[in-house]
Amino acid sequence: MARHDKSATPLGFAAHDHTACQSRALATADQLCAARRVQFTPVRRRVLEILLESHEALGAYDVLARLNAEGLGSKPPVAYRALAFLVDQGFVHRIERLNAFIACADPSHDHSPAFMICRACGTVAEAHAQMPLGDSAARSGFQIEQTVIEAEGLCPDCQEVRTP
Fold first, then answer.
1. Which of 3.40.50.880, 1.10.10.10, 2.40.40.20, 3.40.390.30 is the CATH number of 18-162?
2. For residues 59 and 74, what is the distance between their CA atoms, to the nearest angstrom?
3. 26 in Cβ contact with 46 (< 8 Å)
4. pTM score, two decimals?
């Protein structure tokens, strides 16, 4: 198996045009904020840009360090408020297992994400979760409000490194 081109960050562990990926996500966020009549402030936008730089999850303090270095805020509430807004709007997901955040791969559609987390390199790929629990929940009268699936393993690149 050929190695992936590391200059193209993996999305779903496949090479893609990351610049176009970032541009689409920011344009979608701009459009949705305008349609929803919510403010996409410079700090909120910058936090999303930081999370869009790679397909790795970042902790709130990692985001705060970047904001502080750029003169956009040094107090934890700055990062936490921006992240809360981005999560509420569906532009960012919180990955519980890592206590971290990642930009949504498909912010234009409401969905239940499933994350594949590489335990070796930290790359995270997002997919739409299949909802086998949905039928059981409906039969029992339970209304699911949110589902997040997180799986840990090795991405294709890290599997290749471990293969002699």
1. 1.10.10.10
2. 15
3. no
4. 0.79
